[in-house]
């Protein structure tokens, strides 16, 4: 392992924990190819010490599909996935990054608008209509992305 790979592994370790493959279930999380993924299907074949698990998982940020097989007794990386809500303060005209209000009263300006047209347009439309919006931000393995929103003061 090169120094660069070793450095990456040590950074990754603080953002994940290990769990035996046989205990990871559908709708859980797993790290596949150094990406945080949600398990959409898992099957086990064989028995005893020779059993293996086959995972079908979707990257939680890109939507890319992965398949991964491993011995059922092997430890796998599992990402810490945290969803935090922030109040939406501003969507600048350039449409790149939003301004969010944290629970401590400071602002957070490093979250991009969703790239998919429908959620991005719905969020912009709600903001332009003057709605008070709470934005849910999913974070895992050093990445963050808006994963939902709601109107906190429905009329």
Automatic annotation (TrEMBL):
SUPFAM superfamilies: Nucleic acid-binding proteins (SSF50249), Translation proteins SH3-like domain (SSF50104)
Biological processes annotated in GO: positive regulation of translational elongation; positive regulation of translational termination; translational elongation
Ranges of residues in domain Translation initiation factor 5A C-terminal: 83-150
Record's signal peptide: none
Gene Ontology MF terms: ribosome binding; RNA binding; translation elongation factor activity
This protein's record includes keyword Metal-binding: no
Keywords of this entry: Hypusine, Protein biosynthesis
Record PTM: eIF-5A seems to be the only eukaryotic protein to have a hypusine residue which is a post-translational modification of a lysine by the addition of a butylamino group.
Protein family per UniProt: Belongs to the eIF-5A family.
Function: Translation factor that promotes translation elongation and termination, particularly upon ribosome stalling at specific amino acid sequence contexts. Binds between the exit (E) and peptidyl (P) site of the ribosome and promotes rescue of stalled ribosome: specifically required for efficient translation of polyproline-containing peptides as well as other motifs that stall the ribosome. Acts as ribosome quality control (RQC) cofactor by joining the RQC complex to facilitate peptidyl transfer during CAT tailing step.
Name of the featured protein: Eukaryotic translation initiation factor 5A
């Amino acid at each position: 392992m090169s120094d660069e790979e070793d450095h990456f592994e040590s950074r990754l370790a603080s953002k994940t924990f290990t769990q035996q493959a046989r205990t990871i279930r559908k709708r859980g999380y797993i790290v596949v190819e150094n990406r945080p993924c949600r398990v959409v299907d898992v099957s086990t074949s064989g028995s005893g010490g020779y059993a293996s698990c086959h995972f079908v998982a979707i990257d939680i940020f890109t939507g890319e599909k992965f398949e991964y097989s491993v011995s059922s007794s092997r430890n796998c990386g599992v990402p810490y996935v945290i969803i935090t809500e922030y109040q939406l303060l501003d969507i600048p005209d350039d449409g790149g990054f939003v301004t969010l209000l944290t629970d401590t009263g400071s602002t957070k300006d490093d979250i991009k608008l969703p790239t998919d047209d429908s959620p991005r347009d719905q969020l912009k439309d709600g903001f332009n209509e003057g709605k008070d919006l709470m934005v849910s931000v999913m974070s895992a393995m050093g990445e963050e992305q808006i994963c939902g929103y709601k109107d906190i003061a429905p009329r």
